[in-house]
């Protein structure tokens, strides 16, 4: 079973905290990988929040392809951070030659463009980058979006932490929202793209569990948006559904739960809004998910949430103190990062619930 | 020696031969009385007996005339092999056996100048069905645990009606962040994913039809299964049209337009909307041919309902006045949608054929959003009457066409917008749950079935050519006849009970299949659950091949 975790704080946190959150759940890792998405960045990226940062793992050849492509499109690099790696002997990591986090200014003709236009440009660019580097695994473009950094690697999470010097907290590399998973996907061949969390246009999702409706989700999603590609993991579908419902259709977040785990018909017909719920269930029947899973998601405004499958077959717990909220597959993870919190107010979300943490760190429980 | 007239019909020209044992027969006459086809009758035979009446053997010969039961070698009265004689014989003296050397296909047209006709079963090609080469192969194990079929809840409902694409839903957001609907959407009814297929009140005896209707009402009102029944072409009794039970009925209009006059006249008095309207363009079991209701079956009440005299009634193969898909959409869907003020889903039924995907593609792009379902019917089904030649030599199985339609929808990102319903030999092996489940995995939203319902009622026919006399009006089981004496053989309450029990069992079996794949909703499009041991089937249907 995968272990997943997420942190949201008033203050900037170093990813060591995410590693700590995940480490105590180590028995659930198969030591096949570690991945994280950091949003609302601090440290050396704090001044570049409005500009897109590219997260790239690549070969030298891949790097050249990427830089040429970005240059050709008119992107101008304004900032670059290459993590200092620590290649000790004996580390269990299949490292790529280069890890590059570069911030770019938009092409000149986009200076006055709307956020939507800029977003589309970034999406198209990332898809082009991905395609251009795909052959022979020359590189992996995980995210290209303002205020977001993604790191994914294959190997033992502890070794990956050591390799990237992530165990030692510092002020340079921080964020207010960090989502992480200490495992590669198990259902498919191991490829770097397959590790959670998944990211698209400001939306992040990671999941603990399976999606037995993967086939029908995938068949449907493939034609909904050009960004819905890859499908390296069955839980990637959760991100695409989130993106589709919230961004493409513009429906408020509570309806995400109604789409992925619709109410049983007998409950649905008792509702005042049954017409809408039925229409949703009909039109988006292929986005329903089945199978045991817990989803953690982050919206572009950094709202974080979690919800479960319709039968509550996978665990998740939400704990908090004054400054930080943590979501974790197992409570031991939260005990590690928030040892002094009041355990009595921990939330164990149920099958019909979304637990939402807004940007003021207010925790809300929405009943489906 | 008597001259042989080689062209005379003999019993061994016929498809079935009567085996008779005079030593066991008490001449009670039950078999003759029960044979609806007059295929057997009394006959005198001259018997030679050797006897002796002295103390030492002095054999003498005596001849006597003895009554027996014999098969009639009359083409009109050929034995159908239904086996009713054997059922009623108290002494096991008579039975019918298949005649592998039958010359029937030659002698029948030679004698009558027309091809044989029969109740529709797929007799020519009796082999393993495509569905039987498929198994449910994805069994959830440790990563995605299976569900408990007895304990968990399952959602077993399927849509009938035009489903709008999500971006076309008329939603506005309220100030409180709720979605509100600001205009009407096409009607969609969520019903049980197994519909009782369209069999007309002319094809079935009124007792049989009543039994199905009774079963459907019971399933809905007592068992909580929203099963729907399709009327078949030919309308229905006015009393039913005006009753509250109409809501369980899908009204069919077919190419003969039979019965619609009465339906339209009854509209002002309807207290309920029908569950749907099904426009039959083609039928799978006899594509390119029409349903054939022989005059023998056009009883008085059928004449009244259909508004026709006692005559052969042929539903033409398609709507003769319609020459394009656009025209059919415009003329029929719109008018029938409008007739019920857009409250009733209107679906279309076509025969599986090389062109069915084209029809589906056209409908899926229908800009008026009025096509409420695509019913696809294949050769393996059929209960009605038709010419042998149509039944045996035309048509298309429905499985691959269903898959083609579903994949066509997938390619356009429009899956589910026009619910797909499929039929054609489903439940032929008695297990409808398995067939329905597999069809859903291949993309059907639901299935419909007719023949199985007849079998539940005690139909004696089979797919090896036994009986198949639905067209004669002489159904020995009282199912497809309008003869009061024969219809009385059927006990409608027992039939209804059988159907109800079968549906309840099938419902549990559906869950039993949903549980191991870890699904709590119907597995529409979950082709990943299926495996096939037949490479050709696996490739054609795009499911996993295993060996």
Automatic annotation (TrEMBL), chain A:
Family annotation (InterPro entries): GATase_2_dom, Ntn_hydrolases_N
Q: Gene3D superfamilies per the record?
A: Glutamine Phosphoribosylpyrophosphate, subunit 1, domain 1
Q: Which residues form the Glutamine amidotransferase type-2 domain?
A: 2-360
Query: Which protein is depicted?
Result: Glutamate synthase
Organism of provenance: Syntrophotalea acetylenivorans
Automatic annotation (TrEMBL), chain B:
Name the UniProt record assigns to this protein: glutamate synthase (NADPH)
Taxonomic lineage of this organism? Bacteria, Pseudomonadati, Thermodesulfobacteriota, Desulfuromonadia, Desulfuromonadales
Give the EC number. 1.4.1.13
- Identify the residues that bind [4Fe-4S] cluster 1: 25, 28, 31, 89
**Family membership:** Belongs to the glutamate synthase family.
Keyword line = 4Fe-4S, Amino-acid biosynthesis, Glutamate biosynthesis, Iron, Iron-sulfur, Metal-binding
Q: Which SUPFAM superfamilies match?
A: 4Fe-4S ferredoxins, FMN-linked oxidoreductases
Single GO BP term = glutamate biosynthetic process
A single MF term (Gene Ontology): glutamate synthase (NADPH) activity
A Pfam family = Glu_synthase
Catalytic activity reads: 2 L-glutamate + NADP(+) = L-glutamine + 2-oxoglutarate + NADPH + H(+)
At the top level, the lineage of the source is Bacteria
- InterPro entries, sorted: 4Fe4S_Fe-S-bd, 4Fe4S_Fe_S_CS, Aldolase_TIM, GltB, Glu_synthdom
**Gene3D superfamilies, A to Z:** 3.30.70.20, Aldolase class I
Q: Which residues bind [4Fe-4S] cluster 2?
A: 35, 79, 82, 85
Every 4Fe-4S ferredoxin-type domain range: 16-45, 70-99
């Amino acid at each position: 079973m995968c272990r997943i975790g997420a942190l949201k704080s008033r203050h900037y946190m170093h990813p060591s905290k995410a590693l700590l959150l995940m480490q105590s759940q180590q028995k659930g890792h198969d030591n096949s990988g570690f991945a994280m998405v950091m949003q609302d960045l601090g440290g050396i990226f704090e001044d570049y929040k409005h500009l897109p940062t590219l997260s790239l793992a690549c070969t030298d050849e891949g790097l050249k392809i990427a830089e040429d492509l970005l240059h050709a499109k008119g992107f101008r690099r304004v900032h670059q951070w290459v993590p200092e790696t620590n290649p000790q002997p004996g580390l269990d990591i299949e490292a790529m030659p280069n890890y590059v986090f570069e911030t770019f200014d938009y092409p000149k003709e986009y200076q006055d463009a709307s956020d939507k236009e800029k977003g589309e440009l970034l999406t198209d660019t990332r898809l082009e980058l991905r395609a251009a580097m795909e052959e022979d695994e020359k590189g992996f473009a995980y995210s290209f979006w303002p205020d977001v950094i993604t790191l994914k690697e294959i190997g033992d999470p502890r070794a990956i932490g050591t390799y990237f010097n992530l165990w030692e907290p510092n002020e340079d590399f921080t964020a207010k929202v960090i989502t992480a998973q200490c495992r590669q996907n198990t259902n498919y061949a191991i490829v770097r793209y397959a590790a959670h969390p998944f990211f698209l246009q400001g939306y992040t999702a990671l999941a603990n569990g399976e999606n037995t409706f993967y086939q029908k989700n995938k068949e449907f999603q493939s034609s909904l948006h050009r960004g819905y590609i890859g499908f390296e993991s069955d839980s990637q579908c959760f991100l695409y559904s989130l993106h589709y419902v919230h961004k493409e259709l513009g429906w408020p977040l509570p309806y995400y739960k109604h789409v992925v785990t619709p109410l049983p018909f007998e409950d649905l017909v008792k509702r005042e809004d049954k017409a809408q719920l039925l229409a949703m269930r009909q039109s988006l029947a292929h986005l329903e998910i089945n199978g045991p899973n817990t989803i953690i998601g982050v919206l572009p405004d950094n709202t974080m949430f979690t919800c479960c499958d319709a039968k509550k077959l996978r665990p998740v717990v939400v704990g908090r103190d004054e400054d930080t909220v943590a979501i974790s597959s197992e409570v031991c993870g939260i005990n590690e990062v928030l040892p002094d919190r009041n355990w009595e107010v921990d939330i164990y979300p149920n099958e019909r619930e979304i637990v939402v943490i807004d940007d003021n760190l207010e925790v809300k429980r929405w009943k489906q | 020696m008597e001259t042989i007239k080689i062209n005379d019909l003999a019993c061994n020209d016929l498809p079935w031969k009567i085996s008779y044992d005079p030593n066991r027969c008490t001449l009670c006459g039950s078999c003759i009385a029960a044979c609806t086809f007059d295929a057997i009758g009394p006959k005198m035979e001259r018997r030679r007996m050797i006897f002796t009446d002295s103390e030492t053997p002095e054999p003498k010969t005596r001849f006597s005339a003895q009554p027996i039961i014999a098969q009639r070698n009359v083409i009109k009265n050929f034995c159908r092999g239904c086996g009713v004689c054997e059922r009623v014989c108290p002494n096991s003296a008579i039975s019918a056996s298949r005649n592998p050397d039958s010359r029937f296909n030659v002698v029948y047209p030679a004698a009558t100048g027309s091809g044989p006709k029969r109740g529709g079963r797929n007799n020519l090609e009796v082999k393993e069905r495509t569905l039987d080469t498929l198994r449910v192969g994805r069994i959830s194990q440790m990563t995605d645990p299976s569900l408990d079929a007895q304990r968990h809840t399952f959602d077993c409902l399927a849509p009938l009606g035009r489903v709008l694409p999500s971006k076309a839903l008329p939603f506005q957001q309220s100030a409180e962040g709720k979605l509100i609907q600001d205009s009407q959407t096409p009607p969609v009814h969520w019903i049980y994913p197994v519909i009782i297929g369209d069999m007309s009140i002319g094809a079935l005896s009124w007792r049989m039809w009543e039994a199905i209707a009774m079963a459907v009402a019971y399933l809905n009102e007592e068992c909580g299964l929203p099963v729907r029944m399709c009327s078949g072409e030919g309308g229905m009794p006015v009393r039913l049209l005006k009753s509250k039970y109409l809501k369980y009925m899908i009204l069919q209009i077919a190419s003969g337009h039979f019965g619609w006059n009465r339906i339209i006249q009854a509209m002002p008095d309807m207290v309920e909307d029908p569950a749907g309207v099904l426009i039959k363009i083609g039928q799978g079991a006899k594509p390119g041919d029409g349903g054939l209701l022989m005059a023998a079956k056009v009883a008085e009440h059928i004449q009244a309902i259909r508004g026709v005299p006692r005559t052969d009634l042929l539903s033409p193969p398609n709507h003769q006045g319609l020459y394009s898909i656009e025209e059919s959409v415009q003329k029929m869907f719109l008018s029938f949608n409008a007739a019920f003020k857009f409250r009733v889903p209107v679906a279309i039924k076509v025969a599986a054929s090389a062109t069915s995907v084209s029809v589906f593609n056209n409908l899926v792009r229908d800009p008026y959003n009025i096509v409420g379902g695509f019913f696809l019917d294949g050769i393996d089904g059929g209960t009605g009457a038709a010419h042998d030649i149509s039944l045996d030599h035309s048509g298309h199985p429905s499985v691959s066409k269903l898959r083609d339609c579903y994949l066509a929808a997938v390619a356009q990102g429009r899956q589910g917008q026009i619910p797909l319903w499929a039929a054609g030999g489903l439940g032929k092996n008695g297990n409808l749950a398995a067939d329905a489940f597999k069809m859903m995995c291949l993309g059907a939203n639901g299935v419909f079935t007719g023949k199985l319902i007849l079998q539940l009622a005690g139909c004696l026919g089979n797919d090896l050519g036994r009986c198949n006399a639905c067209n004669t009006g002489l159904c020995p089981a009282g199912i497809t006849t309008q003869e009061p004496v024969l219809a009385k053989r059927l006990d409608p309450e027992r039939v209804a009970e059988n159907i109800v029990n079968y549906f309840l069992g099938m419902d549990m079996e559906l869950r039993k299949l949903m549980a191991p794949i870890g699904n709590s909703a119907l597995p529409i499009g979950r082709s990943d659950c299926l495996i096939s041991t037949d490479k050709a089937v696996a490739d054609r249907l795009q499911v996993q091949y295993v060996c």
